Amino acid sequence: MLIETQTLIVGGILLFIAVVTSLCSAFFRRPKIIEMQGTPDSPVRFSIVMSVCEQAELLARRLPLFLQQDYPDFEVIVVDDSSSDNTNDVLSALKAQYPNLYTTFIPKESHYLSRTKLALTVGVKAAKYEWLVFTGIDCEPTGNDWLTTLARYCEHADVVCGYTGLTSAADQYRRFERLRTNCYLMRSPYRYEGQNLAIRKEVFLANNGFQNNLTYLRGEYDYLVNECRRHSRVTTMTETQGRMIQDDPDEKTWREAHLQFAETRHHLKHTFGHRLLYHIDTLCCHLGYLVQLAALAFALTTQRWQLAAIAGVCLLLTLGLRIFFANRAAKAFDEHISLLKLPFYELRVAWQNLRFTIAHKKADRYNYIRR
């Protein structure tokens, strides 16, 4: 059976598109899992800072996981954001048990554009060690060696962005989305998404903390890393023992976080290259499927069976490569996501972001910035 020259040329183009568009993926360029060896030349001391509000049950269950880290020099500072439950009783009981736990609070009457930024700033002022670690009580470290692992990254950096995954009980799409975002950010951290951020206190103060972005209600870690990366050494921590696991947010919290980022991204600096890469990847993902489906539909309509077979093979190749790259990244970060859902999740991200962008434009701008 002879194959027409025209069919061969079109088939070659389809094959080229299938391979090239599949390589345009954050999962293909996923960050390598590098285990830092050795110990720091000088001791690294940590002040872990977290803000809590109406989370007494989580405090009783999670705080000991931070306080029991197998590490000699660290303190945990909990800032109570005017909780009305038994948070104070839980903290008092834990303080009697753990001498490295310190607590403070911000009064309910405090008028501030971002209570989160206020609480973290209060925690920083109370910190006595040279390294600040920002996290949340809705998270837990993967083990007792979390701080030991983190310390190995601090010797040659000023800011360490640790990977934060969602719990295995979380919605699969949200775990996929977090993984995909971090495949971009862990290679080139121009902002930060997670609850596992370490920064030298002197660098935090030199950048005026959150003062430069007080106009904006949220995005505190995004702005902090975005500003620090221009003058400080920023690195990432991906190895398993240094990771944090975060609870799945409820639907309202998850939606508000996306709407907040729709505002935040417009104010981050030096992001053109990062956003361009993201848009190229998104375009290639859709373009690859669209061209192959169009070629397959045309071939079937015109009864060009050889071309239909080639288009079908190229479509399967695209699906196979994208599933392979995404699954390889998921396994590297201990994320268990259904293989059959991966292509649909990858397509969903772009349309979901478009939906949130439109919702953000329709919303009251004072939902995101100070009046």
Can you walk me through this structure?
With 371 residues, the protein is α/β, with parallel strands linked by helices. It is built from twelve helices and ten strands. The chain has helices spanning 5-23, 56-67, 87-97, 115-126, 146-154, 172-185, 201-206, 220-228, 251-264, 272-301, 305-332, 342-362; strands at 46-52, 74-80, 101-105, 131-134, 139-141, 159-162, 164-166, 197-200, 234-237, 244-246. The strands form two sheets. A seven-stranded mixed β-sheet has the order 3-2-1-4-8-6-9, with helices on both faces. A three-stranded mixed β-sheet has the order 5-10-7. Helix 9 crosses helix 12 (342-362). The termini are far apart.
Quick recap of the structure?
By secondary structure, the protein is α/β, with parallel strands linked by helices.
List keywords for this structure.
371 residues, three-stranded mixed beta sheet, seven-stranded mixed beta sheet, alpha/beta
